[in-house]
Amino acid sequence: MADLTLRDVKKSYGNLNILHGIDLDIKSGEFIVFVGPSGCGKSTLLRSIAGLEEITGGTLEIAGEKVNDVPPSKRGIAMVFQSYALYPHMTVYDNMAFGMKIAKESKAEIDKRVRAAAEILQLTKYLDRLPKAMSGGQRQRVAIGRAIVRNPKVFLFDEPLSNLDAALRVATRIEIAKLKESMPETTMIYVTHDQVEAMTLADRIVVLKDGRIEQVGTPMELYKHPGNLFVAQFIGSPAMNILPATIERAGETSLVSHLAGRKSPVPVATPSDAQGKAVSFGVRPEDLYVATGDDFLFEGMVDYVEQLGEVQLVYVDIGRPDQPLTAKLPGNVEIKRGTVIRLAASADDLHIFGGDGRSYARRRTAVAA
Ligand SMILES: Nc1ncnc2c1ncn2[C@@H]1O[C@H](COP(=O)(O)OP(=O)(O)OP(=O)(O)O)[C@@H](O)[C@H]1O
After folding, report:
1. Which of 18, 159, 189, 212 is the pocket-test mutation for ligand 1 (most atoms within 8 Å of CB)?
2. Keywords assigned by UniProt (predicted)?
């Protein structure tokens, strides 16, 4: 059981500022995922929470206690790394027991906890094996088991699945989700590059960019209501299509004109001073569908099709040099390269972002709240 509170947390290496004042409240038992582009500071933030990095400003509290100066071993946290970091000459049992032996726990207590963790992770029959006789996925489970036996208040994962092949990643991801269910009181913080891991595991996702938080929300909040252009294009794959546009008529429902002078009503309120302003107009590839009549958003020539079986990614030339529109359409519809296609989307799936990149829908939500 541990809430985490981060207030204006900063980290710099010499003159190089990496974290620029992170404010974040994590509730006990939450599964939080940090995502963001390479180098944005995800690992630094995680390592700062663990105490492996000393923060250079702000405060960090775990379970109500300020831990800025508390060493890692006394923070009640356990961390699982991308490289499993198992001792190769020790059996699975001894690898899992090692930390407790060092902490001088009784043999009976060690045995109880190792066996309980092995049971949760389905490692019981491998307890006498050496790591080299196990698959990558099994080794990562041992590393997770080694963390579980410590009975941590907070569990930290730094890209734990990135060394596994695709099939093992899926299997181990599901195990981590089940592990969370079996430890509902344990707070978990997880760093990943993988959108699917973030969307499926997180109670809330924290999107970071250049050492700052861009948005915090449930996976569906971030997907449906991205607060700004960065989050809109970072969450979701392929990325949201963004086009330059102008607000023709501001109001409860805005009228937006975009490429080729087409005008679309968007059920997002814009203030009267937004009238005539240049904005960005967004629509996700998977929200587009083939329009049969004259009611369409985009018309263009199919430049390329990537058939993935269940779906196909259709790249449509809508007159923007080197920037085709991407549509994710069902795989069973025949779409021929070189033909003209019309695409539409439901008005509810359209997004408008102001000149500062912030979503208009989000502004309204913020005011209403
Ligand atoms: N010890 C260090 N000294 C100087 N700069 C560092 C140090 N450790 C990390 N950095 C820099 O801090 C920035 C953030 O690194 P960090 O590893 O936290 O990013 P990340 O978001 O986890 O990246 P990735 O997704 O590539 O793992 C990077 O620019 C990195 O070069």
Report:
1. 18
2. ATP-binding, Cell inner membrane, Cell membrane, Hydrolase, Membrane, Nucleotide-binding, Sugar transport, Transport
Atom of ligand 1 nearest to the CA of 191: 22
CA-45 nearest atom, ligand 1: 18
- Please tell me if the CB atom of residue 40 comes closer than 6 angstroms to any atom of ligand 1: yes
From 3.40.50.1010, 3.30.470.20, 2.30.40.10, 2.40.50.140, which CATH number describes the 232-368 domain? 2.40.50.140
Rounded distance, CA 213 to CA 178, Å? 28
Provide the 8-state DSSP code for 68: T
CA distances, 60 to each of 4, 117, 217, 265 (Å): 7, 29, 21, 46
Query: What's residue 27's pLDDT?
Result: 96
| pLDDT tens digit sequence for 122-157 | 899 999 999 999 988 889 889 999 988 988 899 999
- Model pTM score: 0.91
Provide the ipTM: 0.97
**Ligand 1 in reach of 18 Cβ (< 6 A):** yes
Q: Is 358 exposed, middle or buried (0-12, 13-18, 19+ CB in 10 A)?
A: middle
291 beta partners = none
Q: Rounded CA gap, 151 and 3, in Å?
A: 16
Q: Which tokens belong to 120?
A: 């949760």
Q: Establish whether residue 228 lines the binding site of ligand 1, counting it when its CB lies within 6 angstroms of any ligand atom.
A: no
Q: Which residues contact 102 (CB under 8 A, 6 or more apart)?
A: none
Outline where the chain has alpha helix (H): 42-50, 92-102, 107-120, 136-148, 166-182, 195-201, 219-224, 229-234, 360-368
What is the third-level CATH fold of 4-231? Rossmann fold (3.40.50)
**Domain residue ranges of the chain, discontinuous segments joined by +:** 4-231, 232-368
Q: What is the pLDDT of residues 152-186, one digit of tens each?
A: 899 999 998 888 888 888 888 998 898 899 889 99
CA–centroid distance, 198 to ligand 1, in Å, is 20
Residue 111 CB contacts under 8 Å (≥ 6 apart), including other chains: none
Is 44's C-beta closer than 6 angstroms to any atom of ligand 1? yes
